[in-house]
Amino acid sequence: MVQAARQAGTAGRRAVFELFPRRLPQGRRYGVVAGVGRALDAIEDFRFDPATILALEGVVDADMLDWLASYRFSGDVWGYAEGEAYFPYSPLMVVEGTFAEAVLLETVLLSIYNHDSAIASAASRMTLAAAGRPCIEMGSRRTHEEAAVAAARAAYVAGFDASSNLAARARYGVPSTGTAAHSFTLLHDAEADAFRAQVQTLGVGTTLLVDTYDVAEAVRLAVEVAGTGLGAVRLDSGDLGEVAREVRAQLDDLGATSTRIVVTSDLDEHAIAALAAAPVDAYGVGTQLVTGSGHPTCGFVYKLVAREGDDGEMVSVAKRSTDKASIGGRKYALRRRSSSGVAEAEVIGIGAAPQDDGDDRALLVPLVEGGEVIGRATLDEARARHRSSLAELPRAVTQMSAGEAAIPTLHLEPR
Amino acid sequence: MVQAARQAGTAGRRAVFELFPRRLPQGRRYGVVAGVGRALDAIEDFRFDPATILALEGVVDADMLDWLASYRFSGDVWGYAEGEAYFPYSPLMVVEGTFAEAVLLETVLLSIYNHDSAIASAASRMTLAAAGRPCIEMGSRRTHEEAAVAAARAAYVAGFDASSNLAARARYGVPSTGTAAHSFTLLHDAEADAFRAQVQTLGVGTTLLVDTYDVAEAVRLAVEVAGTGLGAVRLDSGDLGEVAREVRAQLDDLGATSTRIVVTSDLDEHAIAALAAAPVDAYGVGTQLVTGSGHPTCGFVYKLVAREGDDGEMVSVAKRSTDKASIGGRKYALRRRSSSGVAEAEVIGIGAAPQDDGDDRALLVPLVEGGEVIGRATLDEARARHRSSLAELPRAVTQMSAGEAAIPTLHLEPR
Lengths: 415, 415
Prior knowledge:
2 copies of one chain form a homodimer.
Chain A: H1 2-8, E1 14-20, E2 31-32, H2 36-45, H3 50-55, H4 62-69, E3 76-80, E4 85-86, E5 93-98, H5 99-103, H6 106-130, E6 135-137, H7 145-157, E7 162-163, H8 166-172, H9 182-187, H10 191-202, E8 207-209, H11 215-226, E9 232-235, H12 240-253, E10 260-263, H13 269-274, E11 282-285, H14 287-290, E12 301-308, E13 314-316, E14 331-337, E15 343-350, E16 361-362, E17 364-369, E18 372-373, H15 379-391, E19 409-411
Parallel strand pairs in A: 6-7, 6-11, 8-9, 9-10, 10-11, 15-19
Antiparallel strand pairs in A: 1-5, 1-12, 2-4, 3-5, 3-17, 12-13, 14-15, 14-16, 17-18
Helix pairs in contact in A: 2-6, 6-7, 7-8, 10-11, 11-12
């Protein structure tokens, strides 16, 4: 496309692309934006090194290879801050540059946003369902090895407390926490040997896995080995609520009243909610988190909404189609809020910013200016944004049942 | 775990781990193994470089860091060949080494197998449904940016013809093919300008996207610009079967009888099957492919099944649990076939290989010996394996409806 546009003389036209969802996943009341920080890294790093240029020989012509070799995004980007809630048609990212510069970013930006936001959207429902009990990300082995690192990061944005993924700790500072596998117990001649080895190395504050053989016997052994100061026990099978109640009673009887109970085993937001009344102290979540709990991608698209015409003026453009219509024109967005601070609508202006009624909040922040990243936020800022964004949404967002978007999306008439 | 086992003196015990599925995804009749080649790369490359060691300071102790710095897998691996069909409890990979060496590979091996096999399993059903018509992988932007490259590779193993992912071309030699986006048409002042620019650069053999505005008008323009030698047109919205029939009639009327029709738009195996009678020449598949068509992960697990005891003898081990039971002991597998070569059962021997009845096929091939990769296959060999493995399965595998596994899994008594 870029090569053809260059030959046609249109590649340098100013262009505005918009990254947005046409809808929320079926039944979801809100989504959560994640991947913004990774996308900014990707824009900064988007270069074609000599090896890549070599690999593209035969795909594009020599003139195009030269252009790619010196590629550097020099445009502007605005977007929703990481951790922000989103709704259908929220203009999550607005990219302005030449057509050639901006169109090349389509795939990487969509990949990052579609993946990371799918994980964060699921993670947010899980942390809501956990109602303050810590959630631990443990899904690395159920997704692509690099997606796993991004998933740990996105889950942390949406309120998870820690991850078992050490690369996420190294790259992004996501707190890490570990677990022992059944293989560790099975390696040893007796369960008590495994517990002793673990406590000797990691201290009594460690979490012992107690469901390899008989749970009650393992709990007895665990307290015998570690003492009543044992940090936690983990349950990974059976009726978790029922077993947790039995184990809590047993721990209390043994005097291990502050030993916590961590549960894992194909948890999702519904299973977490169902355990609300059980004596569970933390949830370890794997498969359902890293696969977006039924919605592994957000279906975001990246569409050209405005471009320069022959006369140098910007023109709104959109595909005309019955089932996949887009709305042309540069978008602006604010979250309309009541005087008491409750979100009421996602208001999208076309060609001009919607007017703030006094209690509203503008949603697009500058991310890149003239090719320079200016909107970087820390993960802790993203976590805080997630918390505050959720706090202002109507109470319906806490419902795990399927429903409509928590607030409507309103498009203002183009100005 | 490794640090604790090292301190307890058990880390050096010989261990046999098995990577296997407990079940097929709900309703699926078979699965397809993919990621073997990537897993072999990962085993070869599994080292802890100085930066990684630095990042692990504080996580493990200095002695453990020293051990990690010199880590190199020196054991043996057997597995199903890439492209092979699998069934519940198929022992897809058997890893033997010291506990410490083998347990460290768990996450990366599961990540690769769980992801790549999920994609290949979905892709295989799609290529079956396409019944010989080419399928093109176009889902990069709907999944994590690195998962996208692996997905393109896995789809190719399972019969896809090409991918739009150029990194998959560079890294793995997956044939690439492109498409123009609606943005390319919208960039230009008139649809005919966009078509002219594309044909001028890519020749009349290119594929023109004809549903940005009015399909009939675009088809007319496309043939006017490119001539009757136009390679193909692409449809990305509407009732694809109906529109394809109209476009075919129009192309034929215009004399463009050999111009092909490529369709895209949220296709899955069912949508592909439903278009069997429509004049469609190729399918471009995105979201549903890269998300495993409802099953984004295979749920493979990696379990310790045997390990050395105090006396140096190997002991079979397994978790005792009601809902997540494993079967201890080293596994061997063959596909039992009738005298006419039709697969009848997945036969799994525990501790010894099942006897070949004369028409059977052993399924485990040596992949790594003493740390050296010896079982590398080309992607074309994996594609051929996929075709021949499917060809010997009962005809039921071609049914897109939900059903049971195409063949039963039989465990022989341990010897």
